[in-house]
Amino acid sequence: AILMNGFRIQINTRYCKTEVLRNGMIRRAIKKDIPGLDRLLYQVNQVHADIRPDLFISGKKKYTDEELKEILGREDTPVFVYTDEEDEVLGYAFLVVENTFGANNFRDDKMIYIDDICVDEKARGRHVASELCAYVRNWAAKEGYDRLTLNVWTGNDPAVAFYDHMGFKPLKTVMEMKLYSFYGWEKADCFALTDTYPQIRTPLDLYDALADCWDAQTCAPRMRGGWNKENRTLGQCSITAFLAQDIFGGEVRGILRPGGNYHCYNVVGERVFDLTSEQFGDEVLDYTDNPLQERAVHFAKEEKRLRYEELKRRLAQWCKGER
What pTM does this model have? Predict the structure, then answer.
Protein backbone atom coordinates (compact mmCIF):
# COMPACT_ATOMS: atom_id res chain seq x y z
CA ALA A 1 0.00 0.00 0.00
CA ILE A 2 1.10 3.58 -0.72
CA LEU A 3 0.38 6.53 1.58
CA MET A 4 -1.33 9.29 -0.35
CA ASN A 5 -0.04 12.52 1.22
CA GLY A 6 -1.67 11.74 4.51
CA PHE A 7 -5.20 11.43 3.09
CA ARG A 8 -7.34 8.43 3.97
CA ILE A 9 -8.22 6.20 1.04
CA GLN A 10 -10.05 2.88 0.76
CA ILE A 11 -8.39 -0.02 -1.01
CA ASN A 12 -10.16 -3.27 -1.83
CA THR A 13 -7.81 -6.25 -1.59
CA ARG A 14 -8.39 -9.96 -1.92
CA TYR A 15 -8.27 -10.20 1.90
CA CYS A 16 -10.24 -7.25 3.26
CA LYS A 17 -10.97 -3.57 3.05
CA THR A 18 -7.92 -1.50 4.04
CA GLU A 19 -7.94 2.06 5.35
CA VAL A 20 -4.74 4.01 4.84
CA LEU A 21 -3.95 6.65 7.47
CA ARG A 22 -1.28 9.27 7.96
CA ASN A 23 0.97 6.95 10.01
CA GLY A 24 0.02 3.58 8.57
CA MET A 25 -3.03 1.55 7.63
CA ILE A 26 -5.74 -0.57 9.23
CA ARG A 27 -6.97 -3.84 7.75
CA ARG A 28 -8.32 -7.24 8.73
CA ALA A 29 -5.64 -9.49 10.18
CA ILE A 30 -4.54 -12.55 8.24
CA LYS A 31 -2.38 -15.55 9.11
CA LYS A 32 0.89 -13.89 8.11
CA ASP A 33 0.25 -11.34 10.90
CA ILE A 34 0.46 -13.96 13.64
CA PRO A 35 4.12 -13.24 14.58
CA GLY A 36 3.25 -9.55 14.98
CA LEU A 37 0.13 -10.39 16.96
CA ASP A 38 2.20 -12.66 19.19
CA ARG A 39 4.65 -9.86 19.95
CA LEU A 40 1.87 -7.56 21.09
CA LEU A 41 0.03 -10.30 22.98
CA TYR A 42 3.12 -10.78 25.12
CA GLN A 43 3.28 -7.03 25.76
CA VAL A 44 -0.34 -6.65 26.85
CA ASN A 45 -0.13 -9.74 29.04
CA GLN A 46 2.84 -8.18 30.82
CA VAL A 47 0.80 -5.03 31.50
CA HIS A 48 -1.85 -7.21 33.13
CA ALA A 49 0.74 -9.30 35.00
CA ASP A 50 2.22 -6.13 36.47
CA ILE A 51 -1.24 -5.08 37.70
CA ARG A 52 -2.44 -8.51 38.87
CA PRO A 53 0.52 -10.86 39.36
CA ASP A 54 -1.80 -13.12 41.36
CA LEU A 55 -3.82 -13.83 38.20
CA PHE A 56 -1.59 -13.34 35.16
CA ILE A 57 1.62 -15.24 34.44
CA SER A 58 4.49 -13.06 33.27
CA GLY A 59 6.02 -14.15 29.98
CA LYS A 60 2.85 -15.78 28.65
CA LYS A 61 0.27 -14.74 26.04
CA LYS A 62 -3.49 -15.04 25.82
CA TYR A 63 -3.76 -17.19 22.69
CA THR A 64 -1.68 -19.96 21.15
CA ASP A 65 -0.85 -19.74 17.46
CA GLU A 66 -3.39 -22.48 16.73
CA GLU A 67 -6.06 -20.51 18.57
CA LEU A 68 -5.09 -17.40 16.61
CA LYS A 69 -5.51 -19.26 13.31
CA GLU A 70 -9.00 -20.31 14.37
CA ILE A 71 -9.93 -16.78 15.51
CA LEU A 72 -8.70 -15.24 12.26
CA GLY A 73 -10.78 -17.70 10.26
CA ARG A 74 -14.09 -16.89 11.94
CA GLU A 75 -16.50 -14.14 10.98
CA ASP A 76 -17.76 -13.65 14.54
CA THR A 77 -14.27 -12.86 15.89
CA PRO A 78 -12.87 -10.20 13.52
CA VAL A 79 -9.38 -8.91 14.21
CA PHE A 80 -8.04 -5.64 12.84
CA VAL A 81 -4.38 -4.66 12.70
CA TYR A 82 -2.70 -1.30 12.37
CA THR A 83 0.45 -1.65 10.23
CA ASP A 84 3.19 0.71 9.10
CA GLU A 85 4.49 1.23 5.56
CA GLU A 86 6.59 -1.95 5.93
CA ASP A 87 3.42 -3.87 6.91
CA GLU A 88 4.72 -4.41 10.45
CA VAL A 89 1.93 -4.80 13.01
CA LEU A 90 1.90 -1.78 15.35
CA GLY A 91 -1.46 -2.43 16.98
CA TYR A 92 -4.45 -4.75 16.98
CA ALA A 93 -8.09 -4.96 18.01
CA PHE A 94 -9.60 -8.37 18.77
CA LEU A 95 -13.40 -8.21 18.46
CA VAL A 96 -16.24 -10.60 19.31
CA VAL A 97 -19.76 -10.38 17.91
CA GLU A 98 -22.38 -10.65 20.67
CA ASN A 99 -26.14 -10.24 20.86
CA THR A 100 -29.04 -10.61 23.26
CA PHE A 101 -31.53 -11.93 20.73
CA GLY A 102 -34.07 -14.25 22.36
CA ALA A 103 -33.15 -13.35 25.95
CA ASN A 104 -36.15 -13.22 28.28
CA ASN A 105 -35.19 -10.02 30.10
CA PHE A 106 -33.07 -8.09 27.56
CA ARG A 107 -34.08 -6.05 24.57
CA ASP A 108 -32.61 -7.27 21.29
CA ASP A 109 -29.14 -5.80 21.04
CA LYS A 110 -26.33 -6.43 18.58
CA MET A 111 -22.93 -5.64 20.09
CA ILE A 112 -19.22 -5.76 19.43
CA TYR A 113 -17.18 -6.77 22.45
CA ILE A 114 -13.62 -5.46 22.22
CA ASP A 115 -11.77 -8.44 23.62
CA ASP A 116 -8.36 -6.79 23.42
CA ILE A 117 -6.68 -3.67 22.07
CA CYS A 118 -2.93 -3.25 22.15
CA VAL A 119 -0.41 -0.85 20.64
CA ASP A 120 3.25 -1.78 20.31
CA GLU A 121 5.17 0.00 23.06
CA LYS A 122 7.56 1.44 20.46
CA ALA A 123 4.64 3.03 18.57
CA ARG A 124 2.94 4.72 21.52
CA GLY A 125 2.42 8.45 21.22
CA ARG A 126 1.69 8.17 17.47
CA HIS A 127 -2.12 8.06 17.89
CA VAL A 128 -2.25 4.44 16.81
CA ALA A 129 -4.69 3.51 19.60
CA SER A 130 -7.07 6.39 18.92
CA GLU A 131 -7.12 5.75 15.15
CA LEU A 132 -7.60 2.02 15.70
CA CYS A 133 -10.42 2.60 18.19
CA ALA A 134 -12.10 5.13 15.91
CA TYR A 135 -11.86 2.68 13.01
CA VAL A 136 -13.53 -0.07 15.05
CA ARG A 137 -16.26 2.36 16.15
CA ASN A 138 -16.99 3.49 12.58
CA TRP A 139 -16.82 -0.04 11.18
CA ALA A 140 -19.22 -1.38 13.83
CA ALA A 141 -21.69 1.47 13.25
CA LYS A 142 -21.61 0.91 9.49
CA GLU A 143 -22.20 -2.83 10.01
CA GLY A 144 -25.32 -2.09 12.05
CA TYR A 145 -24.14 -2.86 15.58
CA ASP A 146 -25.77 -1.02 18.48
CA ARG A 147 -22.83 -0.59 20.83
CA LEU A 148 -19.23 -1.40 21.68
CA THR A 149 -18.31 -2.91 25.05
CA LEU A 150 -15.01 -3.76 26.71
CA ASN A 151 -13.48 -4.58 30.09
CA VAL A 152 -10.62 -2.75 31.82
CA TRP A 153 -8.71 -4.15 34.79
CA THR A 154 -8.78 -2.01 37.92
CA GLY A 155 -5.36 -0.42 38.23
CA ASN A 156 -4.92 0.13 34.49
CA ASP A 157 -5.53 3.86 34.87
CA PRO A 158 -4.03 4.91 31.50
CA ALA A 159 -6.46 2.58 29.69
CA VAL A 160 -9.43 3.92 31.69
CA ALA A 161 -8.45 7.50 30.80
CA PHE A 162 -8.01 6.59 27.12
CA TYR A 163 -11.38 4.87 26.80
CA ASP A 164 -13.08 7.73 28.63
CA HIS A 165 -11.50 10.13 26.13
CA MET A 166 -12.79 7.98 23.27
CA GLY A 167 -16.35 8.26 24.59
CA PHE A 168 -16.82 5.00 26.51
CA LYS A 169 -19.00 5.16 29.64
CA PRO A 170 -19.15 2.78 32.63
CA LEU A 171 -21.63 -0.06 32.04
CA LYS A 172 -21.26 -2.33 35.06
CA THR A 173 -18.82 -3.06 37.88
CA VAL A 174 -17.32 -6.52 38.37
CA MET A 175 -16.37 -7.11 42.00
CA GLU A 176 -14.37 -9.89 43.61
CA MET A 177 -13.70 -11.37 47.01
CA LYS A 178 -10.66 -13.57 47.11
CA LEU A 179 -11.00 -16.65 49.30
CA TYR A 180 -8.23 -18.25 51.35
CA SER A 181 -7.68 -21.46 53.30
CA PHE A 182 -5.23 -20.50 56.02
CA TYR A 183 -6.45 -20.31 59.62
CA GLY A 184 -7.94 -16.95 60.64
CA TRP A 185 -8.00 -15.40 57.18
CA GLU A 186 -11.57 -14.15 57.60
CA LYS A 187 -10.49 -11.70 60.32
CA ALA A 188 -6.92 -11.05 59.20
CA ASP A 189 -7.68 -7.41 58.52
CA CYS A 190 -4.97 -5.68 60.56
CA PHE A 191 -2.85 -3.13 58.71
CA ALA A 192 0.88 -2.88 58.16
CA LEU A 193 2.80 -0.74 60.65
CA THR A 194 5.69 -0.16 58.23
CA ASP A 195 6.12 0.92 54.63
CA THR A 196 9.17 -1.29 54.13
CA TYR A 197 7.03 -3.48 51.88
CA PRO A 198 4.71 -0.97 50.16
CA GLN A 199 2.55 -3.58 48.42
CA ILE A 200 1.71 -5.33 51.70
CA ARG A 201 -1.24 -3.76 53.52
CA THR A 202 -2.83 -6.75 55.25
CA PRO A 203 -1.91 -10.38 56.07
CA LEU A 204 -3.88 -11.39 52.98
CA ASP A 205 -1.52 -9.33 50.84
CA LEU A 206 1.41 -10.93 52.62
CA TYR A 207 0.08 -14.42 51.92
CA ASP A 208 -0.38 -13.60 48.23
CA ALA A 209 3.19 -12.34 48.01
CA LEU A 210 4.78 -15.19 49.97
CA ALA A 211 2.96 -17.72 47.79
CA ASP A 212 5.44 -16.63 45.10
CA CYS A 213 8.40 -16.64 47.51
CA TRP A 214 8.19 -19.90 49.45
CA ASP A 215 10.09 -22.84 48.01
CA ALA A 216 12.30 -25.73 49.10
CA GLN A 217 15.17 -23.37 49.90
CA THR A 218 13.08 -21.48 52.47
CA CYS A 219 11.60 -24.72 53.85
CA ALA A 220 12.99 -26.20 57.08
CA PRO A 221 15.78 -28.62 56.09
CA ARG A 222 14.19 -31.62 57.80
CA MET A 223 11.03 -31.17 55.68
CA ARG A 224 12.49 -30.30 52.28
CA GLY A 225 11.98 -33.77 50.92
CA GLY A 226 8.22 -33.31 51.21
CA TRP A 227 8.00 -29.75 49.90
CA ASN A 228 6.20 -29.10 46.61
CA LYS A 229 4.14 -26.30 45.06
CA GLU A 230 0.90 -27.95 46.16
CA ASN A 231 2.14 -27.93 49.76
CA ARG A 232 4.04 -24.65 49.59
CA THR A 233 3.57 -23.66 53.27
CA LEU A 234 5.36 -26.80 54.50
CA GLY A 235 8.28 -25.96 56.79
CA GLN A 236 7.80 -22.17 56.46
CA CYS A 237 6.08 -21.38 59.78
CA SER A 238 8.64 -19.65 62.00
CA ILE A 239 10.33 -17.49 59.38
CA THR A 240 6.89 -16.50 58.02
CA ALA A 241 5.44 -15.69 61.45
CA PHE A 242 8.40 -13.50 62.42
CA LEU A 243 8.29 -11.72 59.08
CA ALA A 244 4.58 -11.07 59.63
CA GLN A 245 5.43 -9.73 63.08
CA ASP A 246 7.92 -7.32 61.49
CA ILE A 247 5.10 -5.93 59.36
CA PHE A 248 2.00 -6.09 61.58
CA GLY A 249 3.43 -6.18 65.09
CA GLY A 250 1.79 -8.36 67.74
CA GLU A 251 3.06 -11.67 69.05
CA VAL A 252 4.34 -14.93 67.65
CA ARG A 253 3.01 -17.94 69.50
CA GLY A 254 3.72 -21.63 69.04
CA ILE A 255 1.79 -24.91 69.10
CA LEU A 256 3.84 -27.79 70.48
CA ARG A 257 4.16 -30.55 67.90
CA PRO A 258 5.26 -34.18 68.24
CA GLY A 259 9.04 -34.23 68.45
CA GLY A 260 9.23 -31.06 70.52
CA ASN A 261 9.16 -28.41 67.79
CA TYR A 262 6.74 -25.48 67.80
CA HIS A 263 4.48 -24.47 64.95
CA CYS A 264 4.46 -20.67 64.88
CA TYR A 265 1.54 -18.35 64.12
CA ASN A 266 0.59 -14.71 64.71
CA VAL A 267 -1.58 -12.89 67.22
CA VAL A 268 -2.26 -9.19 66.60
CA GLY A 269 -4.65 -7.79 69.17
CA GLU A 270 -7.70 -10.05 69.01
CA ARG A 271 -6.78 -11.34 65.55
CA VAL A 272 -5.24 -14.79 65.33
CA PHE A 273 -3.97 -15.97 61.97
CA ASP A 274 -1.67 -18.71 60.74
CA LEU A 275 -0.33 -18.06 57.25
CA THR A 276 1.20 -21.56 57.02
CA SER A 277 -1.61 -23.70 58.48
CA GLU A 278 -2.47 -25.32 55.13
CA GLN A 279 0.45 -27.73 55.50
CA PHE A 280 -1.58 -29.64 58.11
CA GLY A 281 -4.47 -30.40 55.78
CA ASP A 282 -7.61 -31.37 57.71
CA GLU A 283 -5.85 -31.58 61.07
CA VAL A 284 -7.45 -29.19 63.59
CA LEU A 285 -4.89 -27.22 65.59
CA ASP A 286 -5.52 -25.64 68.98
CA TYR A 287 -4.72 -21.92 68.88
CA THR A 288 -5.56 -21.20 72.53
CA ASP A 289 -3.14 -20.56 75.41
CA ASN A 290 0.02 -21.33 73.50
CA PRO A 291 3.43 -20.02 74.62
CA LEU A 292 5.14 -16.94 73.22
CA GLN A 293 7.95 -17.57 70.77
CA GLU A 294 11.13 -15.50 70.90
CA ARG A 295 12.99 -14.76 67.69
CA ALA A 296 16.32 -14.82 69.53
CA VAL A 297 15.68 -18.45 70.44
CA HIS A 298 14.55 -19.43 66.95
CA PHE A 299 17.28 -17.51 65.14
CA ALA A 300 19.98 -18.96 67.34
CA LYS A 301 19.87 -21.61 64.64
CA GLU A 302 21.91 -20.02 61.87
CA GLU A 303 20.17 -21.91 59.08
CA LYS A 304 16.77 -20.60 60.24
CA ARG A 305 18.03 -17.02 60.46
CA LEU A 306 19.42 -17.27 56.94
CA ARG A 307 16.11 -18.63 55.64
CA TYR A 308 14.32 -15.71 57.31
CA GLU A 309 16.70 -13.22 55.67
CA GLU A 310 16.18 -14.92 52.32
CA LEU A 311 12.41 -14.71 52.66
CA LYS A 312 12.70 -11.00 53.50
CA ARG A 313 14.86 -10.47 50.43
CA ARG A 314 12.38 -12.25 48.20
CA LEU A 315 9.46 -10.27 49.60
CA ALA A 316 11.29 -7.02 48.84
CA GLN A 317 11.90 -8.26 45.30
CA TRP A 318 8.22 -9.19 44.92
CA CYS A 319 7.16 -5.70 45.99
CA LYS A 320 9.39 -4.28 43.24
CA GLY A 321 7.88 -6.61 40.64
CA GLU A 322 11.11 -8.59 40.33
CA ARG A 323 9.66 -12.03 41.11
Answer: 0.75
